[in-house]
């Protein structure tokens, strides 16, 4: 049996939980500029591709990603959403994010948070919707007294996405 990593104190747990719940609310409300402020300047935000392979072979391809963003590319994506050429998100998707099963451990410069993400996304008036589900690993650290996201890795539970585009943030 492997040792369980040490748990963080309740105040830290609540600060982490509040940050991630607030982040989901900002995204669902389309408040992207405020959402950007939750990230460090050196943020890495990736979603590697998952593949279906026989047992014993890796099922994640780290070199190919659904997206591989840094602070600058996140800012460009947010800015683009405010223009008339963001066709994939005009009108904006109706979304609801569920962030749950958080496992929080302290590390050398902050905290690692592994949790589950479920994203409900509806577009238009057709009654169709997407469910995007996966595991999210966040690295958080304190910057000027605020807890911020310095790295995010999203591993989707699908080898082939059913959604027509990923013009949204996970």
Automatic annotation (TrEMBL):
Its EC number is 1.14.12.19. It holds the Pfam family Ring_hydroxyl_B. CDD domains: ring_hydroxylating_dioxygenases_beta. Keywords: Dioxygenase, Oxidoreductase. It comes from the Bacteria. The keyword Oxidoreductase applies. GO terms for molecular function: 3-phenylpropionate dioxygenase activity. InterPro entries: NTF2-like_dom_sf, Rng_hydr_dOase-bsu. The keyword Oxidoreductase applies. Belongs to the bacterial ring-hydroxylating dioxygenase beta subunit family. PANTHER family: 3-PHENYLPROPIONATE_CINNAMIC ACID DIOXYGENASE SUBUNIT BETA, BLR3401 PROTEIN. This is 3-phenylpropionate/cinnamic acid dioxygenase subunit beta.
């Amino acid at each position: 049996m492997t040792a369980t990593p040490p748990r963080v104190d309740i105040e830290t747990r609540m600060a982490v939980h509040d940050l991630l719940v607030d982040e989901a609310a900002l995204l669902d409300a389309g408040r992207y500029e405020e959402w950007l402020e939750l990230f460090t300047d050196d943020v890495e935000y990736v979603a590697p591709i998952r593949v279906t392979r026989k047992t014993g072979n890796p099922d994640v391809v780290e070199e190919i990603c659904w997206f591989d963003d840094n602070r600058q590319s996140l800012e460009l994506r947010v800015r683009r959403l405010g223009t008339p050429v963001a066709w994939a998100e005009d009108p904006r998707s109706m979304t609801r994010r569920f962030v749950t099963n958080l496992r929080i451990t302290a590390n050398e410069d902050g905290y690692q948070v592994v949790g589950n993400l479920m994203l409900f996304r509806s577009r238009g008036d057709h009654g169709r919707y997407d469910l995007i589900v996966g595991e999210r690993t966040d690295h958080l650290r304190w910057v000027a007294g605020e807890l911020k996201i310095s790295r995010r890795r999203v591993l989707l539970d699908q080898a082939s996405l059913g959604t027509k585009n990923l013009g949204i943030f996970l």
